[in-house]
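ARCHIVE CARD
Drawer: 12
Card no.: 0347
Subject: one protein chain, sequence and derived structure
Cross-reference: see card 0346
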Amino acid sequence: RPLVGVARSIAPADRNELRNHPGVEFTGVCDVDADALASVAKEHPGAFACRDFREAFARHGDRFDAVVVCTPDHNHALIMLWALRANKHVYGQKPLVQQLAEVPAMLDAVARRPGLVTQVGNQRMGPPGRQHAVDILRRGLLGRAIEAHAWISGPGDRGDGFFWYGGLKDPAPPPSNLDWTLWLGAAQDAPYREGLAPMRWRSSWDYGTGQLGDWCTHLLDVLYFAYDLPAPAAVVSHTRTPSDFYHAQHVHSTLTYPVRGERFARDRFVVHYCDKGQAPSRAALGLPAGDWPGIGTLVVCEGGALLVEAEGAMQCWIGGQPVDWKSIPGQGPVIGRNHWHAWVDRIAGKPDAFVQSPFASAAGMAEAGLLCCRAARFPGTELRWDRATATIPNNAEANRTIVRREYRAGFELPAVT
């Protein structure tokens, strides 16, 4: 299989985990950074190396049966849809897509390729911790769900950090090792600016999804797996000022899901998703005084509340009092697994291999994260969302500016038929 995007961020970890599986052989590597490409190519003698992912499919498509995509967010859907169209299994990094209109496109593509195995980079769901949370909630062991809160601790207020770098730098010539045109890929032509590549694109409106988009898969996964959530019907951002995606935002977004059935206490399920560690009031929820972790997902049910931390540690309250979650009766067995190896085993046809985070689930998580961070351009305005038509029907300006992009010639999204 080829690896598209070999340097920095999560790519080395993905590569190391996968090559430790006895059934994996990297037959090709691809990256727009010539230096990174040359370095990783040395680790895989005999593998082809190219800078344009389209060349990998056109010239070497018969040499691989699966693709690993570790590029900046704005090229995720483009490359993953190319792979699905070519009938390749895909492991793709989160968030699955970078544009709201790419959500239905991805869902349609995986529905048309039911025999392909997909997995999003949601490695925190591999160990038992978060799986126990899903089991407790899915079985309704704390009663019907009322609402949920999820929060992430960043981005930082100052410095030259991962998600914040003080605004756009002035245009400058790209480094000689970087093919800037290929790096742009699906995005429109724009000048290189210091810091965007290789890492700080994450805080860019055109290329990243900010802190909320980057972490949505790791924080909202428990909710989607426990409750099979539909597309959100509405989002409102309570941020102070319209987001330009280059500064710490203090975003608090409210998502409303239309739900029904015995798992829910109401006909709507409300999720509050925040950055800057904006956790809810413990007193308002009837919980004893204490400190919240910097990152968490809290689910409030009629019979209690469950907090899940990023790496799976849990706290539980029933009747406002802390209890050991392990003492809750009715739980089922949970099996920890290697997130990466499970994907390979499923491709190999092993009957007990279980892929926890396929694209069909990951698309909804990305959709929620995107709605929250995109809505920050319209603070205080409730935006209604229609996934079926990929539109915001109640706000023409939002519908025009935050739903889709114009793809550059030669890098349009391919149709998967």
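Annotation on reverse: Residues 129 and 398 are 38 Å apart (CA to CA). The first strand starts at residue 2 and ends at 4.
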